[in-house]
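agent: user wants the full assembly modeled, not chains individually. Plan: 1) parse entity lines 2) check alphabet per entity 3) run joint structure prediction 4) return tokens. Steps 1-2 passed, two entities, 768 residues total. Proceeding.
--- entities ---
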Amino acid sequence: MNPKVDAIGGSLIREIAARKKPGSIDLGLGEPSLLPTIRYFYAAVNSVEKSGMRYTVNAGDLRLRELIAAHYGYPHAASAENVCVTTGSQEAVYVAIKTLMDPAKDEMLLVEPAFPAYKKMALLEGIAVRTLSNREENDFAFEPRRILEGITDRTRLIVLCSPCNPTGRVISAAAVREIAGALSVRGGDPIYVLHDEVYREQTYIADAGYFAQVYPYTIVTNSLSKSNALTGLRIGWTLAPKPLAAAIVKTHAWVTSCASTYAQRIAAQIFATAGALQEHAAWYGERSASVVDILQHSGLRFVAPEGAFYACVALERGRSSLQAAHELADEEDVIAIPGVAFGASFESWLRLTWVAPLDEVREGIHRIARRYAPEAGKTLFGAT
Amino acid sequence: MNPKVDAIGGSLIREIAARKKPGSIDLGLGEPSLLPTIRYFYAAVNSVEKSGMRYTVNAGDLRLRELIAAHYGYPHAASAENVCVTTGSQEAVYVAIKTLMDPAKDEMLLVEPAFPAYKKMALLEGIAVRTLSNREENDFAFEPRRILEGITDRTRLIVLCSPCNPTGRVISAAAVREIAGALSVRGGDPIYVLHDEVYREQTYIADAGYFAQVYPYTIVTNSLSKSNALTGLRIGWTLAPKPLAAAIVKTHAWVTSCASTYAQRIAAQIFATAGALQEHAAWYGERSASVVDILQHSGLRFVAPEGAFYACVALERGRSSLQAAHELADEEDVIAIPGVAFGASFESWLRLTWVAPLDEVREGIHRIARRYAPEAGKTLFGAT
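--- prediction returned ---
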């Protein structure tokens, strides 16, 4: 068997999510609880009735790619040739990393806490990964100087997710400019930035930064999973400068051939409809404010979300987040993801997804506080 | 950039297919022209309306995997744990090869003529590929002794597609027994067989062989693309013995996370409906007979299809199939795939897909015969 497959684990997030019992409060898996807009599905079925369900070209339907490129208008990825439509942002990240990186010499710099897939994918490809972590004492904010100091002679790619899964922090436009500026003047082979924008439509601050607006060597990955409650549709894309974009299409062609034509038809409707990508954005904005309010009364230390749909809460320093997640699942009927899944620096934290009904989110946070911040919890929630 | 991505080409089949002009007769891309059954789509939309469009577990919906395993009833892949649901059979083959093969030592033995993806995927992973070819003088029949003689000390996997793309030949039950028997008694680490069964529902002979029925180290890949005219849905699966099956799920999880939930709901309906996988089989059987009749009158040398929806015709020996395909596309408005795409041994052949309206198939074959077997063509079709 392939020793690289053997060496990496499966998904800890999925392992914890699988502990859910009927009646458990689910603050685990990162997917929306809203229902998607159903008319897109019916329109796509009508098109199947008329023209069947055939392959698109490997890169994805031309009109969809034009719509995606035009929607974002990134200066170095402004045409259909810069887009590759993929099976969710998971395949988008996979083919981007696989295409860009030479395992014989290139190193990936991963900004943690981070969704575990980036590192697992790199290890699967035999690519060296160097990690650095945003600092707990700075509430896990993205710090340009810290990121730039992580660069070595071998760094070919910096990977970050903003809005961040798990922390909910968003990199600022100023921070992006500072990093892009430093990368632009350093000379030598360019260092690419992979900016995972999958939570772009869940951004609650005004000055969010986007690398692709200012830095030519940016690969953007994104999907409709989070914005439009379409996780199960598996439709995503990469935006990349040429000629990398064409090479990404080639890798994608051999891995999955092309993305689902049905899903592409739904995506084309969304990109052709003004405001459709933001159709759930107001809900997330209101909900994030409610969750911050609950957390402020919980007695738990937390990171206030600037984006995404997570809130992270601290356990006592030194406590195992995995053990806490198991205790919560088994004894408190609360599914929460242990911080260690996102990097060693997040060991004493839990990631809470707050898309369940608000009463359940409140009750789940209450149970966590009762167990891990008992004095505060008693005061603030009342005795149980 | 990753030198392995750089080194492999894109799809020659797609390149030729892209030469199609309005009005061209399309005997190119390997996808059905029938429309899929639309009620599956509406039922799937109803389920989205009720329960949204969320992820399934990485391996795929449990009930779907149970249905798939039960449908085939292969003795060493009889339960849901043996199944991984994928983004088409393309991802199925990709994750199977990537999971099984250690690039540092394992060699893949590919039986040609063969769909180019197998070799391209192996090269993308840095896996050594040894090819052998079914023989033209034997009309490209699968020959057990020849395949067994191709095995070396490093062979870990034998890859074949039956019914075969491109030749339309089907491996017999006796040939499968002979190969399986020899592999079973050889000792040492097992050699796996990857049997791509994607054309299983287009089989026109009675004694087709299936490795998974008799050989424990068989990986089956398949999809609904060809059987149910669902190429664009991107739904496929692997069937594999344990513990390989679990490792395949792990690779799949990091590459695409999970297959489309929407597509899985359609697949579950098909597997739960008696005869639904065969709903187009009669059409293909009748059509294959008509095509053989046309070919017999064409003056072209051809391989009569025992399965799949291709017919292969010979050019004069030594003629470049790529040049012929270009001539046909540009001067005769006929799209046909050059044999060289499937291996050097198929250089003087063209692959013709015969799913277009029968008059177009007849006219396309007529134009090919007129150009490449002019004397025969004149006699049999009448002067043009």
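agent: reporting back. Chain A touches chain B through 68 residues (CB under 8 Å). Residues 3-34+280-372 of chain A form a domain with the Aspartate Aminotransferase, domain 1 fold (CATH 3.90.1150.10).
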